[in-house]
Write a structure and sequence with these properties.
single chain, 13 helices, 70% helix
Length: 328
C-alpha cells in the first residue's frame, strides 16, 4: 500500500512540474478539453457558425430565398404554402407569408451572432481603454472614470438602448445612418443595434480590467520591472495587460449571449433590425400572432436563441474553470 501511495504522490509531483513548465494558454486548453459540457458547447457552436457561413456561400444549404413569399395555390384556389409544418421541402415549415422558416432562421442566426460578437468587440475596446486608464492614470483619473462607469451602470440597460436607438434611427448619420450596401455588416440599422447594446455592455469589462491591473501592480515582478527601469508603457502592455486577458475572455464569452438576448428583446418589441431582415428576435415577434395556427414558426427561432445562450454559457463556465488558477 505504501508503494502505491508513493507512486501516486510521485505522479502528482511530476504532473505539478509539467503544469508549472507549461504555458498558461496551453495549460488552460488542456483543462478545457477535460470539461465535457464546454467542449460539447464549443462543437455545437462551431457547427452552427459553419452552417451559417456555408449558407451564405452555398445556396443549396439555405435552399430558399428568405425573402421569397410563396402564394402558390392548389386546384381549389387555396394557398398551399402558408403556415406549413416541417416538411422535406421546408424543414422548419413556412410562416404566414409563405416564407421558408429554415432560411430565415439561418439568416436570423447570422444577424444575432454578428450583433453578439460585434457588441463584445466594441465593449472590449471601450472597457480596456477606460479600465486600463483608470488603473494607471492616477487617483484623479481613476475617480473621474469610475464615477462615469458607475453612472452608466446605474442607468437601466434596456431603457438606455431604446434611447440610443431613438437618437440614431431614421437619421442620416455617417456609416450608422446610411451604411455601405456593398458591406452587409455596415448596414445602418444593424450597426446601430450593435453600438447601442455595446454602449451598455462595457461597464463590466472596465471594472474587471481596472481591478485586475490594480491587483497586478502590487505583484513582485511588476515592482521589479519598474525598479529595473522599464517604462510604464512596457509594464502595462508587456506584463499587466496580458495577465488580465484570462478573466476578460471569460467576461466576453458570457457577454455574447447577453447581447444576443438583448437583441432578441429589441426585435420582439420592434426596435431591433427592421423588416424584412430577419433576426431571431424579429422572427419570434413576427410569429407570435400566429402561434395558435402554427407553433413551429415561433418554436424554431426561440429554440435557436436558447441553444446559442446555453452553448455560450457552458463555454464561459469552462473557460472560467480553465483560466482560474485556484481550480488547479
Amino acid at each position: 500500500m505504501a508503494s502505491v501511495a508513493q507512486m501516486q504522490s510521485g505522479e502528482a509531483a511530476v504532473e505539478d512540474r509539467l503544469v508549472s513548465n507549461r504555458g498558461l494558454w496551453s495549460d488552460a486548453f488542456r483543462r478545457l478539453r477535460k470539461n465535457r459540457p464546454a467542449m460539447v458547447a464549443l462543437i455545437v457552436l462551431s457547427l452552427i457558425i459553419l452552417l451559417v457561413v456555408t449558407s451564405e456561400l452555398f445556396p443549396f444549404v439555405q435552399r430558399h430565398d428568405p425573402f421569397f413569399q410563396d402564394y402558390a395555390r392548389d386546384a381549389n384556389g387555396e394557398l398551399n404554402s402558408i403556415h406549413l409544418g416541417p416538411t422535406a421541402e421546408h424543414p422548419f415549415g413556412t410562416d404566414n407569408l409563405g416564407r421558408d422558416t429554415w432560411s430565415r432562421v439561418l439568416q436570423g442566426t447570422r444577424i444575432s451572432l454578428q450583433i453578439g460578437i460585434g457588441t463584445q468587440i466594441v465593449a472590449l475596446a471601450i472597457g480596456l481603454l477606460i479600465g486600463g486608464a483608470a488603473a494607471v492614470g492616477g487617483r484623479f483619473t481613476d475617480s473621474i472614470l469610475m464615477r462615469f462607469t458607475d453612472l452608466t451602470y446605474a442607468f437601466p440597460d434596456l431603457l438606455f438602448i431604446i434611447l440610443l436607438r431613438a437618437v440614431v434611427a431614421g437619421r442620416d448619420w455617417p456609416v450608422i445612418g446610411t451604411g455601405d450596401p456593398q458591406i452587409p455588416y455596415l448596414e445602418g440599422p444593424l450597426l446601430q443595434v450593435t453600438l447601442a447594446i455595446a454602449f451598455t455592455s462595457w461597464v463590466t469589462i472596465a471594472r474587471l480590467v481596472r481591478g485586475q491591473m490594480l491587483s497586478l501592480a502590487q505583484r513582485d515582478y511588476i515592482v521589479a520591472a519598474r525598479a529595473l527601469g522599464a517604462s510604464e508603457a512596457r509594464v502595462v502592455f508587456r506584463h499587466m495587460l496580458p495577465n488580465t486577458l484570462g478573466p476578460v475572455i471569460v467576461a466576453v464569452t458570457f457577454g455574447i449571449p447577453t447581447a444576443i438576448f438583448a437583441e432578441a428583446v429589441l426585435g420582439f418589441i420592434g426596435l431591433g433590425v427592421p423588416i424584412p431582415t430577419a433576426s431571431l428576435g424579429r422572427l419570434v415577434a413576427d410569429g407570435y400572432s400566429f402561434v395558435e395556427l402554427n407553433a413551429w414558426v415561433v418554436a424554431f427561432p426561440a429554440a435557436t436563441i436558447a441553444l446559442l445562450m446555453l452553448c455560450f454559457t457552458f463555454l464561459g463556465d469552462g473557460l472560467r474553470d480553465a483560466l482560474d488558477p485556484r481550480t488547479r
